[in-house]
Amino acid sequence: MALTDLSGRIAIGVDIGGTNTKFGLVNHRGEILAKGTMKTDVHEEVEGFIEEIYQHLEPLIIQNGGMTMVEGVGVGAPNANYYKGTIEQAPNLNWKGIVPFADLMSHKFGKACTMTNDANAAALGEMMYGAARGMRDFVMITLGTGVGGGVICGGKLVYGHDGFAGELGHTIVKPGGRRHWSTGSEGSLEAYASATGIAITAKKMRAEYPASMLNEYSEDDINAKTVYECALQGDATAIEVFRYTGQKLGEALANFVMFSSPEAILLFGGVIKAGDFILKPAKLHMEQNLLPVFRNKVKLVLSELSEADAAILGASALVWANR
After folding, report:
1. At how many degrees (to 10) do helices 310-321 and 118-129 cross?
2. d(CA 155, CA 124)
3. Chain mean pLDDT for the chain
4. From the centroid of its chain, how far is CA 84?
5. Which of 97, 119, 130, 180 has the fewest other C-beta atoms within 10 Å?
6. What pTM was estimated for this model as a whole?
7. Rounded to whole angstroms, what are the CA distances from 277 to 147, 224, 274, 300?
8. C-alpha closest to that of 308 among 37, 25, 4
9. Which residues of 167-182 are buried (b: 16+ CB within 10 A; e: fewer)?
10. Rounded CA gap, 164 and 177, in Å?
């Protein structure tokens, strides 16, 4: 069997957000050789976006051995379909409808392009470069402005029959509960366990407890960070906000465990900076809601990837995973 020398090969990793896009060149060891950012929302047409990202990346590629050293392009994007290479009906992008993004990127760069949503990409990045190295069964939960999920079973990412599996943030944790600000669904995990959800909970709870430090902030200044700062100072209401959030998260994690029996649940994102304020109740309520056969088997593990670079690493992992 012929051996392939990957020592000089590089993958292009691109993470598309509603406002900004991150991109970089990554080797097979997970070292970012070059990176940059650009605005996403200034481009009304996808073709202009792809032209700009090519202009940013071309000199970086030349500096790192040229296009012949590029193994491929990996893209993390909202509503990305892995099978079709399309972005479909993404609510936070200017490009509406079904966009054949992978084909357009492949044509521009002359390299194969693979894409999936950002949470799936994060799961692959964690398995290849981070805390999930060596794991073949785990669930990745990203806790930021929203809540994303990626499920790895038998060492492979679960895409489902249509490429959209793993939308764990939109599973229902409280039927008839809080209405989601974007989807309109009632009681989804994202409505409670995201940074946005934490801010909503805090605003509701501070109204019930006038003595809370949270009432010293204006409505616009109530967010996950200010709740954390109050919790650190011992504010009981702020601590209860995180306890309640952790409870909802833990109840959802129990469902995910009983669905896929993972070795671990990987947690990533700004929300986990709250530490034990949210992690202890999450672990408690996860275990309480598990069948005995599942209890005390599943680890809660924090991501080892830098928050600043995780999106690029995750997208680049798609390239190596599809070699």
Report:
1. 80
2. 9
3. 94
4. 21
5. 97
6. 0.90
7. 18, 12, 6, 14
8. 37
9. bbbbbebeeeebebee
10. 24
